[in-house]
Specification:
Number of helices: 31
Distance between the termini: 65 Å
Oligomer: single chain
Shape: globular
Structural class: alpha/beta
Strand order of the largest sheet: 7-6-5-8-9-10
Number of strands: 21
């Protein structure tokens, strides 16, 4: 064994062992902190939920986790490429499957490994578990036993039963084949298919392809014994017999001529380069055996340079991976209370996956697969598992199909709202940003991006055009932006979809430098310096555009230091009515949002500036549909220390108290006091704040920025912002770590009409 292989093996073992064994744990979803909670969670309160379920079994989905609970069930007789390793040894695989359910679709899952080789007895055990689960995922059960188990469970159970090795593989193969035919310019009804592998996955894939339009007479199935032909007795079952051909041919080599699609779910080296050469033009080769495919892609490509190739491996393009399917088909099925997963739902899943691959690649998927070409075509037939749009698109399609086919016990009233909810579960900012996006749609504001050549800006611009009514303007070189849009697989193009300002050669150059000179001539800027700035400083160019009325808001800062950008923004756009008085960051945490100020603008704000930040924060927090509760945070606690921080905050509160305010504020206090109402009430009974604070204002930027970064890096917080307060929504400076989704959020914030917010 090589050192590399040994190292990878040890890393995998360490992953499973540390910091605690296994990949799963169980967590409570309700508090259990006192006698009141105990009385509700167990006796006597639990009886109320029991009686409601007894009166109406459908209430189990209201009062228990059953409606979001799946069992992954196996007997360990056909585990991956390891074979019959037994139930216990299969447990790491089943735990992993449960983790994928949770990660990709937020479905809770128990892995259940059963020592039962008899398929009918195994089915009986599974059927007996119906009261516990909302759905069953059968996994790694050998053929033909898996067909028997699935049939019995489907017939007897009133919840979805899905054998992922069969139907999950079939769905992803169906989606990949749909797009492969699209790329090759071929039709289902015309193609000849040669398949190797007569197991559960292979048979299910062929059945799926028939449902999609392939003629059964055009399918030639081979297994370890050769071609499946009419009258063959060796190693046959009813499922194989469905694809038996009336022919004298007996081997793969006999039937490969003119094949449009080779579908391999067998073993290594089954297909040769010479056989690939005898296939039809633009052959489609799905060599899905793991870890070594039926033919290595480089050999297939050498034999047929125009071949369209997919494998089951992650180190080649077009990995056929069941994780594209099973989390999302179960998500949709559970959410409508489906009694089964039928053909209509499976085909809807196929169509959803295929359509998503043909759409523009998401920024999140691009970030997860850096360096890979993710443009639809021969090397990108199906989306990547970490594309966050899968949940919303595929699960919604499945839910719709379940409702239309009559198997949904709990039909949804609004599929658009359902998809938005799924998107919000993936994009943590989606739900909180909805009021902002709605407000931004009222006016088609022009947003100029200073760093227009940045990949994140380009992806954000595509999203701005898709999700808002705003008009992006990019500053950058046309040739660079054009080439990057092409390389990234983006549909947008300069001149057609967005305006462009070229710093190197723009007809408005004279207008821009003279405008900048007029603003700065009494501050030491000569005409020559103004000309140089307007050739090299894209932040200053964007600010001048806003000043001249050619754009409504500027977004800058994807690289560089915050205050460097702030200097030029304030130079050009600052006036008696507009001056930067704080940066506000919304940190989206597991239990809701928490706003932090001032993270960037003022290092040691005065009492007047602290009060100003509080007023601005209250105004901006309301943009998100949240009523602000502002805490001034310090090491001092309600006057118990005389240090500068507490003094300035007490003075700021006095300034706020001098006039009527329409928002809640309190301080100065420690952070834990701000977030814990009971603690605050013990320290200062009758204080003016109720509930936990949702805005924390600090008396120095180091503290605010430190809390913001700790929440982001260690608390799993997602940042929206920083929002530049005081500039009339005419400019925002982001941080270099911002993502394309973060830029889209900032564009929506910048897209709100200026009259609404300061």
């Amino acid at each position: 064994m090589s050192d590399t292989t040994d190292s990878a093996r040890q890393a995998a073992l360490n992953y499973h062992e540390f910091p605690k064994p296994g990949k799963l744990e169980i967590r409570a979803t309700k508090p259990l902190a006192n006698g009141r909670d105990l009385a509700r969670a167990y006796s006597p309160g639990v009886a109320e939920a029991c009686l409601e379920i007894k009166a109406d079994p459908a209430n189990a989905s209201r009062y228990t986790s059953r409606g979001n609970l799946v069992a992954v069930v196996t007997n360990g007789t056909a585990v991956l490429g390891l074979g019959n390793i037994g139930a216990l040894a299969s447990k790491p695989v089943m735990e992993g499957k449960a983790v994928l359910f949770k990660k990709f679709a937020d479905i809770d899952c128990f892995d259940i490994e059963l020592n039962e080789p008899d398929p009918e007895k195994l089915a009986n055990i599974v059927c007996a578990m119906e009261p516990t689960f909302g759905a069953i995922n059968l996994e790694d059960i050998k053929a033909p036993d898996c067909f028997i188990v699935e049939r019995i469970c489907r017939e007897r159970m009133g919840i979805p039963v899905f054998h992922d090795d069969q139907h999950g593989t079939a769905i992803v193969v169906g989606a990949a084949a749909t797009n492969a035919l699209y790329v090759a310019g071929k039709k289902w009804e015309d193609i000849k298919i040669v398949s190797t592998g007569g197991g559960a996955a292979g048979i299910a894939c062929l059945n799926m392809l028939v449902k999609l339009g392939v003629r059964r007479s055009n399918i030639w199935l081979c297994d370890i014994h050769g071609l499946v032909y009419a009258g063959r007795a060796e190693d046959m079952n009813p499922q194989k017999a469905d694809f038996a051909q009336e022919t004298d041919m007996r081997t793969l080599d006999d039937v490969i001529d003119g094949a449009d699609l080779f579908l391999g779910l067998s073993g290594p080296g089954v297909l040769t380069a010479e056989q690939v050469k005898r296939m039809a033009s633009r052959p489609i080769i799905f060599a899905l055996a793991n870890p070594t495919p039926e033919i290595m892609p480089d050999l297939a490509r050498e034999a047929a340079p125009d071949a369209i190739i997919a494998t089951g491996r992650s180190d080649f393009p077009n990995q056929v991976n069941n994780v594209l399917c099973f989390p999302f088909i179960f998500r949709g099925a559970l959410d409508v209370g489906a009694t089964q997963i039928n053909d209509a739902m499976q085909i809807a899943c196929v169509d959803g996956i295929a359509e998503l691959a043909r759409a523009t690649t998401s920024a999140e998927a691009a970030a997860a697969y850096q360096g890979e070409a993710l443009t639809f075509g021969a090397d990108y037939l199906i989306p990547k598992p970490f594309d966050p749009r899968l949940s919303g698109i595929v699960s919604t399609a499945v839910a719709r199909a379940a409702m239309e086919s009559g198997v949904a016990a709990r039909p949804l009233d609004d599929l658009v709202a359902y998809k938005a909810k799924l998107d919000a579960s993936v994009f943590k900012s989606a739900l909180l940003m909805r009021p902002v996006f709605e407000a931004s749609k009222k006016d088609a504001r022009r947003i100029v991006f200073a760093e227009g050549e940045d990949e994140r800006v380009l992806r954000a611009s595509q999203a701005v055009l898709e999700e808002t009514s705003e008009q992006p303007i990019l500053i950058g070189r046309p040739s660079v932006i054009e080439a990057r849009c092409e390389r990234l697989g983006l549909d947008i193009r300069p001149g057609r979809d967005f305006r462009l300002v070229n710093p190197e050669d723009d007809p408005r150059y004279r207008d821009y430098w003279t405008s900048y000179h007029e603003i700065m001539q009494r501050r030491g800027v000569t005409p020559d310096l103004a000309k140089a700035v307007m050739r090299t400083n894209t932040t200053a160019i964007g600010a001048v555009m806003v000043h001249r009325g050619e754009a409504d808001s500027l977004i800058c800062g994807t690289f560089g230091e915050y205050r460097w950008h702030l200097n030029y923004v304030n130079q050009v756009l600052g006036d008696t009515d507009h001056h930067p008085h704080g940066a506000l960051s919304m940190m989206i945490l597991e239990d809701g949002p928490l706003f932090i100020a001032d993270t960037h603008v003022r290092t040691f704000p005065s009492p007047e500036q602290l009060a100003e930040s509080a007023i601005g924060a209250a105004r901006h927090v309301r943009r998100f549909g949240i009523e602000p509760r502002i805490a001034f945070c310090s090491q001092s606690q309600f006057g118990n220390q005389g240090e500068d921080s507490g003094k300035r905050q007490r003075a700021a509160i006095a300034l706020l108290d001098a006039k009527p305010r329409d928002f809640c504020y309190e301080g100065e206090m420690n952070i834990d006091t701000a977030l814990d109402e009971d603690l605050r009430e013990r320290l200062l009974p009758g204080n003016r704040m109720h509930g936990a604070a949702n805005v924390l204002i600090f008396s120095n930027a180091d503290a605010a920025s430190g809390v913001r970064n700790i929440l982001k890096m260690k608390g799993g917080g997602l940042e929206v912002g920083p929002i530049l307060m005081g500039m009339g929504n005419r400019a925002h400076i982001v941080s270099p770590s911002i993502t394309p989704r973060g830029l889209l959020n900032m564009a929506a914030i910048a897209g709100t009409p200026v009259a609404h917010y300061g």
